[in-house]
Amino acid sequence: MAKTQVTMTVNGAAAEGLVEPRTLLIHFLREQLNLTGPHIGCDTSHCGACTVDLDGKSVKSCTLFAVQAEGGDLLTIEGMAAPDGTLHALQEGFREMHGLQCGFCTPGMIMRGYRLLKETPEPSEDEIRFGISGNLCRCTGYQNIVKAIQYAAAKLSGASVKEAAE
Amino acid sequence: MNAITQSKEERAEKLQGMGCKRKRVEDIRFVQGRGNYVDDLKLPGMLFGDFVRSPYGHARIKKIDAAKAKSLPGVLAVLTAADLKPLSLHYMPTLAGDVQAVLAEEKVLFQNQEVAFIIAEDRYVAADAVELVEVEYEELPVIVDPFKAMAPGAPVLREDIKDKTDGAHGKRKHYNHIFNWQIGDKAAADRAFDKAEVTIKELISYQRVHPCPLETCQCVASFDKIRGELTVWGTFQAPHVIRTVASLISKIPEHKIHVIAPDIGGGFGNKVGAYPGYICAIVASIVTGRPVKWVEDRIENLSTTSFARDYHMTTEIAATKDGKVTGLRVHVLADHGAFDACADPTKWPAGFFNIVTGSYDFPVAHVAVDGVYTNKAPGGVAYRCSFRVTEAAYCIERGMDILAQKLGMDPAELRIKNMVRREQFPYQSALGWEYDSGDYHAAMKKAMDAVGYRQLREEQKAKQQAFKRGETRDLMGIGVIFFTEIVGAGPSRNCDILGIAMFDSAEIRIHPTGAVIARMGTKSQGQGHETTYAQIIATELGLPADDITIEEGNTDTAPYGLGTYGSRSTPTAGAATAMAARKIKAKAQMIAADLLEVSEYDLEWEVDRFRVKGNPERFKTMKELAWAAYNRVPKGLEPGLEAVNYYDPPNMTFPFGAYICVVDVDVDTGVTKVRRFYALDDCGTRINPMIIEGQVHGGLTEAFGIAMGQEIRYDEYGNVTGPTLMDYFLPTAVETPKWETDWTVTPSPHHPIGAKGVGESPNVGGVPCFANAVNDAFKFLGSTHIAMPHDHWRTWTVAEKLGLHG
Fold first, then answer.
1. Global pTM value
2. Considering only CA atoms, which of A71, A152, A65, A133 is closest in space to residue B734?
3. Can you tell me the distance from the alpha carbon of B774 to that of B673, in angstroms, rounded to the nearest whole number?
4. A15 touches chain B (CB under 8 A)
5. A141 and A120 in one domain?
6. 3 state SS for A102-121
7. For labeling, which of A90, A156, B194, B769 is most exposed (least CB within 10 Å)?
8. Could you say which residues from 116 to 155 on chain A have a Cβ atom under 8 Å away from some Cβ of chain B?
9. Residues A137-149 pLDDT 10s
């Protein structure tokens, strides 16, 4: 099948590649850019394991063609930690609050949490639960994921994270 | 500097040993997207495999024409049964003593069964080629109802074994019959029923569900023709068993097979078995000489690899008028699908279903299980439970509620009256188990006090009256259960898989600097083994957990073990870890005695050191002893400091717990809302309370999914309806209730550290607790038993049938 050139910004750096028009964004990220943090869990947009941030929105990269991201600005889990390796508040929160077990949903969940906190910096518990309801987790029962996002919200707003941890 | 200035408590705390809420080691890579799952693997020249699957539940294959598929650019080959047959690989043995078709030969027996395997340059081309394979079928009559499987004149499903009168577990009564398994004293149980003052009888069905981990089953097989060696990376809960099976099937010597289970994205029983995809990927790699990746999509996962449950339990309890149970009889009709691929220990075709007497002191009991073939996917795995234990818990806990209703007793009171008492442990159950330890009454009391059980019942009574007066359309249900699990298979006298005893193992190596690598025969799929096993070693050896690397899943380096399922890791490999550490400690003690120039008997252990009794300033830390082990060992002692232990547990462990749930049901919409869920778990010694709580949250959420919505349904034509996440209920954060957790600690007397295992308890206890709560809501209106799943539609239907909609 004929291939098309795509160019986009991924985690702050220029990225390009040749893709078929039908190539899914998730496959472009995972197989051509070797960004294997976003995962494939369902192929039908339900599980959210493939969630990445595109132009200021959470998107499920299994349901976009790579060509639809042409010229876009993408952030994946691989771009979340600071260049010096310092974890983002969400990454730290997930570990501190035991917000993950098998780790398969985690990259998508963190990316969704990232956009959620941009949209709603001080979310209520119900807002968090609704805000992540497009991302499925089979291990944690969500309770500690909610706490992890609360931890990050507190940290990002400069409040004491200790309170969130309790 | 290590010295004496730090108190014993400070030093102990620094180790991050057992009992502390140690943060997980695994998380560092997972939160950065640096996990290493199977589909992340990319090898030079790697090909992709994909299946052509049957659209029919039961049909004869008239013709397979793969010419168009083969001519598609990028397609290397199309495998069918005809290609596998000369290699005797068109069927593979199952763990249950049956065979399963790898690629269908003459017939397909369930929808989505594997018919042909495409090998192509990439996954898109493989998927295109699947569409180009033309298969001609002749449809045959379908059996989807297990109750019709053994009817006279029923369609013959398994032509390959139709004349076989003996199955893997004795005589077969019918060509669609698999086995009849019985346990207990039938005559004594019958006598108890003849004399009983009160009896109940109910068909309690546990619907077909699927574990549905977020990562599907997948593998990469790579055969090196020059070396004659096969490497398989896969989502394997039991990598060593997979290696042995691969060797037996492929005839490649076992030392030339390398099986590697990297990070696994959840298992819950789905990843115990061997599936046609693994065999086809291996064959494809041998044929092409290139690595071959096979990755299930979600539909394939839900409709082909391993269902769970599908147990239809006719349950009878005999009791006295004042509520003392006197006998239990259960007959189970078990739907095993088209091939008997149940993942149970060899001698246990119904798993440990004979834990069905539960937490109650039944003087006599009898269980009979008949397994039958139907036109459904094979499997029968333990979805987040020990073998058939969740079925047993659901059966007895529903049964006890139905009995309480008949007696007009409170269900908690009935349970308390019949629970095994503390002084009865070790307790011999009527169906052959020896429960190791428990204090059921204390746990039940703690749970009832915590939720204010009496007040809840008062509130419920007031609500029921208000409902009858027409003042509310809400019903309130209180679910109360007390479960006993049986985990940690198992003693080799009872349990084996394909003849391999179900021990497990640990190997610990202490390096000269006191850093450690330890490897186990189990395999974490999210349970946090890299964190918790290190805590066991830290406490046993006085070395900081942060200096201990835990490695699992590589059959070349890890000692042989039977894997992780049935909550067996802590009871078996956890025990092996403690025992191996103790071997090391014994050697270290000899080295310490030599260095301190005292007798070994003059030394005592304190946190991280051996010190001279009565002279605590003279000591050697474990770190110092590690160095000495590579530097100056006493005469006659080998250098080095490492040990292996293969632990064959003397008994299984019996975790237990008391769960209470409150639901509100809107009779006009069928919507149920879990107002409160309290879970008290006793898993013996607690290694990491944070991880235990996480396991309980997750298990309860899976239980919520099963009880309130999950079902793999088949229509009358054998179509599996809705095997996608659009239809199959996985709770989101919005529906999932908030969990309250609590605990008591009753150590296992036979386990080296007293731990029992916890991962599956919340599923075992959770399912009947939700079900009892929904049933309890309708009980006062005359309803006896409502079948799962309690989705809104079914709940509305119940209300409709009870005439509540006017």
1. 0.97
2. A133
3. 10
4. no
5. yes
6. CCCCHHHHHHHHHHHHHHCC
7. B194
8. 128-130, 132-134, 136-146
9. 999 999 999 999 9
Among B29, B268, B733, select the one facing A133 at the smallest CB separation.
Answer: B733
Encoding tokens for residue B662?
A: 């409150």
The rounded distance, in Å, linking the Cα atoms of B658 and B680 is: 5
Per the CB < 8 A criterion, the answer to whether A28 and A6 are in contact is: yes
**Domain B393-487+652-801: which topology?**
Aldehyde Oxidoreductase; domain 4 (3.30.365)
Interface of A with B in 42-101 (CB under 8 A): 42-44, 46-47, 49, 76-78, 80-81, 87, 91-92, 94-96, 98, 100-101
Q: Do B33 and A35 touch (CB under 8 A)?
A: yes
CA-closest candidate to residue B249, choices B212, B286, B302: B286
Mutate which of B23, B27, B31, B128 to disrupt the A interface (most A C-beta within 10 Å)?
B31
CB < 8 Å from A in window 8-67 of B: 23-24, 26-35, 37, 39-40, 42
Q: Does domain B38-140+216-264+271-293 have CATH number 3.40.91.80?
A: no
Query: Could A137 and B214 be called an inter-chain contact, meaning their C-beta atoms sit closer than 8 Å?
Result: yes
Which member of B29, B266, B739 has the closest CB to residue A141? Answer: B739
Is the separation of the CB atoms in B240 and B561 below 8 Å?
yes
Amino acid identity of residue B553, one-letter, is: G
What one-character DSSP code corresponds to residue B424?
G
Our CA-based measurement puts residue B726 at a distance from the nearest CA of chain A, in whole angstroms, of 7
Give the domain-ending residue among A79, A107, A129: A79
Evaluate if residue A162 carries a pLDDT over 90.
no
Question: B364 near B189, Cβ under 8 Å?
Answer: yes
What domain range is A49 assigned to? Answer: 4-79
Q: Which tokens hold the place of B69?
A: 């598929």
Residue B1 confidence (pLDDT) above 50: no
Q: Could you write out the three-class secondary structure of B375-401?
A: CCCCEEECCCCCCCHHHHHHHHHHHHH
DSSP H helix total and E strand total for chain A: 6, 5
Residues of B with catalytic annotation?
237, 384-385, 760
CB B278 within 8 A of CB B221: yes
Which DSSP string corresponds to B328-339? EEEEEEEE--SS
CB pairs under 8 A between A and B: 174
For B35, B219, B237, B268, B588, the CA distances from B264, given in Å and listed in that order, are: 9, 11, 8, 11, 36
Q: Are residues A110 and A150 in the same domain?
A: yes
